[in-house]
UniProtKB/TrEMBL annotation:
<protein>
    <submittedName>
        <fullName>Helix-turn-helix transcriptional regulator</fullName>
    </submittedName>
</protein>
<dbReference type="InterPro" id="IPR010982">
    <property type="entry name" value="Lambda_DNA-bd_dom_sf"/>
</dbReference>
<dbReference type="InterPro" id="IPR001387">
    <property type="entry name" value="Cro/C1-type_HTH"/>
</dbReference>
<feature type="domain" description="HTH cro/C1-type">
    <location>
        <begin position="5"/>
        <end position="59"/>
    </location>
</feature>
<dbReference type="Pfam" id="PF01381">
    <property type="entry name" value="HTH_3"/>
</dbReference>
<keyword id="KW-0238">DNA-binding</keyword>
Amino acid sequence: MITKMKEMRARHSLTQAELAKQAGVRRETIVFLEKGEYNPSLKLAVKISRILDTPVEELFLFEEEELK
């Protein structure tokens, strides 16, 4: 998974801890998401996309083989 979370979080001047608090998750979850090491649930992906005012499909990009 490729993610633009770090870039979009920076545009909103949010720290990982601030984004985590708003999303209701631990900061470590944000770290793993930004590294592409964790696939979020649909609910979490939508929540983060709303916080960052970015469509889910722009925030999280899955490579074709990941979708099979």
